């Protein structure tokens, strides 16, 4: 169809929508003017913002779909990623996969790897959401394998896209990691969900999520951190994503804030008061208790000077609130997990630590580290002065 005819048809559709949606009349009038002026970038920005607001959706009159149809007629003139983002909004509002499925097969999207990855990520995410609302046993044998393969095939593509100059490339990473975290939330394991959720937060502005979404993510991320195998850097949540964790304040899951902060600070916490709530989420309290104990040991090691990290069994026993004959097991566990490196003298009851796992620190930890760097610099300065004084020149 000639562009002139497409323009006339688009304006007619927008005029009709403006008449039937008086509260949104200004948007449709502006959209019509932008289309007529061929200001395609401004047009897509305008429609993306509009379709990103759930309350603007009116499935009875299919206004989102009509807007997308207008754009798809001139898709060769549009930014492929912007078109994919709008297609995702329309698909989410209608809970239909057909638009994204069709978009992925177009030449414009095939020629734009970042837009294709975004569209495929959103398509798989929609499939996951449909499974959540309408559970099916076929999902685990068919769709689950499809999504798993998609995540595996495209993990390396994210690294390739990192050098892209596309200004909205963060949205591609966000869409991929959102799909990954939702997939692992459904099928496990917990540490895979945690890893992908942390990456999702790196690329997703917190203000773009609703209060309910923040609270759900904070709850799930905290639980995954507490039970996830190999997850010991809780500072990633407590200090780097403090605002997300704050979304649990005043809710039924507020106890998780206390648990997360206490564990990150190396405090031994009794789980008796939280046992029933944790078990209601399917958590093994023994696993969490063990993790808190190991984190307390890591924090204890960090408090020591790097040149004098010698810990006696008796002080470890007191700090971790365990019997002295259990200390050896705790230390062996920390050594086997690679949380610390060193040696243990069971006869003398002493642990010599040469290395401790790096992790995100709070302001107090950063201040302590800064002071140690200052002390180290002074020692280096004194050593240099001594050498200058006592070593003869050749």
Describe this structure in words.
The chain has 394 residues and is mainly α. It has a domain at 1-134. It is 67% helix and 4% strand. The protein is built from 21 helices and three strands. The chain has helices at residues 3-20, 25-36, 40-51, 63-72, 80-94, 98-104, 107-110, 113-133, 137-141, 143-161, 169-187, 190-203, 211-227, 235-238, 242-246, 255-264, 275-280, 285-303, 313-320, 327-336, 363-390, and strands spanning 310-312, 340-345, 350-356. The protein has a three-stranded antiparallel β-sheet. Strand 2 and strand 3 (350-356) form a beta hairpin. The radius of gyration is 28 Å and the shape is elongated. The model has no long low-confidence stretch (mean pLDDT 88).
In short:
With 394 residues, the chain is mainly α.
The backbone outline, from C-alpha atoms, is: elongated
Low-confidence stretches: none
Describe the sheet with the most strands. Answer: 3 strands, antiparallel
Terminal CA distance reads 89 Å
Mean pLDDT: 88
Q: Give the proportion of residues in helices.
A: 55-70%
Structural class: mainly alpha
Radius of gyration, taken over Cα atoms and rounded to an integer in Å = 28 Å
- Spell out the helices and strands N to C: HHHHHHHHHHHHHHHHHHEHHEEH
Strand content: under 5%
Count of DSSP H/I helices = 21
How are the strands of the largest sheet arranged? 1-3-2
Please count the beta strands (DSSP E, at least 2 residues each). 3
Using brief descriptors, characterize the structure shown.
single chain, 394 residues, mainly alpha, three-stranded antiparallel sheet, 4% strand, elongated
């Amino acid at each position: 169809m000639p562009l002139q005819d497409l323009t006339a048809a688009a304006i007619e559709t927008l005029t009709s929508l403006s008449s039937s949606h008086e509260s949104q009349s200004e948007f449709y009038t502006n959209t019509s003017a932008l289309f007529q002026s061929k200001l395609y970038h401004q047009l897509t920005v305008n429609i993306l913002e509009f379709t990103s607001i759930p309350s603007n959706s009116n499935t009875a009159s299919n206004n989102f779909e009509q807007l997308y149809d207008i754009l798809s007629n001139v898709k060769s003139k549009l930014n492929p990623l912007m078109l994919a983002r709008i297609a995702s909004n329309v698909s989410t509002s209608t809970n239909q996969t057909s638009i994204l499925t069709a978009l992925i097969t177009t030449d414009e999207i095939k020629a734009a790897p970042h837009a294709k990855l975004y569209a495929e990520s959103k398509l798989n995410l929609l499939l996951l959401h449909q499974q959540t609302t309408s559970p099916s046993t076929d999902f685990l044998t068919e769709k689950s394998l499809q999504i798993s393969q998609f995540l595996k095939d495209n993990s390396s593509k994210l690294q390739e896209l990192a050098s892209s100059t596309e200004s909205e490339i963060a949205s591609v990473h966000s869409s991929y990691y959102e799909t990954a975290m939702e997939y692992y939330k459904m099928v496990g394991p917990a540490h895979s969900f945690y890893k992908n959720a942390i990456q999702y937060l790196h690329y997703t502005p917190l203000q773009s999520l609703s209060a309910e979404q923040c609270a759900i993510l904070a709850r799930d991320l905290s639980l995954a951190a507490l039970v996830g195998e190999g997850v010991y850097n809780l500072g990633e949540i407590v200090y780097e994503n403090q605002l997300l964790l704050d979304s649990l304040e005043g809710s039924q899951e507020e106890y998780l804030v206390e648990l997360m902060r206490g564990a990150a600070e190396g405090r031994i916490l009794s789980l008796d008061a939280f046992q029933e709530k944790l078990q209601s989420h399917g958590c093994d309290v023994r696993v969490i208790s063990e993790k808190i104990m190991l984190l307390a040991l890591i924090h204890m090691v960090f408090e020591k000077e790097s040149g004098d990290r010698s810990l006696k069994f008796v002080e470890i026993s007191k700090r971790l609130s365990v019997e002295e004959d259990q200390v050896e097991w705790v230390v062996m566990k920390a050594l086997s997990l690679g949380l610390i490196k060193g040696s243990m003298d069971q006869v003398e009851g002493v642990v010599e630590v040469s290395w401790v796992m790096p992790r995100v620190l709070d302001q107090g930890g950063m201040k302590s580290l800064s002071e140690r760097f200052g002390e180290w610099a002074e020692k280096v300065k004194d050593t240099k002065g001594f050498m200058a004084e006592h070593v003869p020149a050749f």
